[in-house]
Amino acid sequence: MEAIKTPDGLLFTALQYSSYEIYVESLMLMTVGRELKYKGILKYVRMIDLSSNNLFGSIPTELSQLVGLRFLNLSQNHLMGSILEKIGRMTSSLSLDLSMNHLSDEIPQSLADLTFLNHLNLSYNQLRGKIPLRTQLQSFDAFSYIDNAQLCGAPLTKNCIAYDESQSKDAIEENEGFEITWFYISSMGLGFIVGFWGVCGALIFKKNWRYAYFQFVYYMRDWVYAVVATRLN
Q1: DSSP 3-state helix, strand, coil percentages of the chain (rounded to 5)?
Q2: In whole numbers, what is the pLDDT of the chain averaged over residues?
Q3: Which of 12, 2, 103, 1 is nearest to 53 (CA)?
Q4: Residues forming a β-bridge with 11
Q5: pLDDT tens readout for residues 68-127
Q6: Radius of gyration of the chain (CA)
Q7: Largest Cα–Cα separation, the chain
Q8: How does DSSP assign 66-104, residue by residue?
Q9: 81, exposed or middle or buried, with CB in 10 Å at 0-12, 13-18, 19+?
């Protein structure tokens, strides 16, 4: 399972499952040579603050299963990758701070499902694309999104015209590429069918053509045989 690691050896794995008859939530912490395992309490976790810990790696996908979590702060670390695609499952969230990391890609649409969210900070990352147009995300001010050079859309002042044009261009090029490929495939198939039946059909239904064709084939066979025999001698 993917984990967040720190240079001093701290290992944080979000969720693990044992092989008992029922699944058991557990949290494993390893630090200064000690291994601590917590069971059956993750559903009661309401706050996680791991800010300013030099954490690196990607955000464990298992965090999205903490549906009772209200406050999550992973700011001022070295986390990379995307914001959790299923972050919208954390429906109890009131505060989310992922600022000052190296997160990239687009903001997932499911983030707007956190309807109780009253504090959001995604600033100082490498996020790109359009901020999803949902009332929940537009209710925060621009400071929640600043210093993401390729991010656009309200509440930022940077519009998404260039981004939309780029997306439209990519879509058009993809469609054109598909149409051209399909055109060549269909043309080759049609050409083969017409050529094959044009020749074979004529030989099947025209007896004199069929006789002339095989006469020509036999003649060419004899001619090739004679040329090869002459050169060998």
Answers
A1: 40, 25, 35
A2: 75
A3: 12
A4: 5, 30
A5: 889 999 999 999 999 999 999 998 999 999 999 999 999 999 998 998 999 999 999 999
A6: 33
A7: 98
A8: -TT--EEE--SSEEEEPPPTTGGG-TT-SEEE--SSEEE
A9: middle
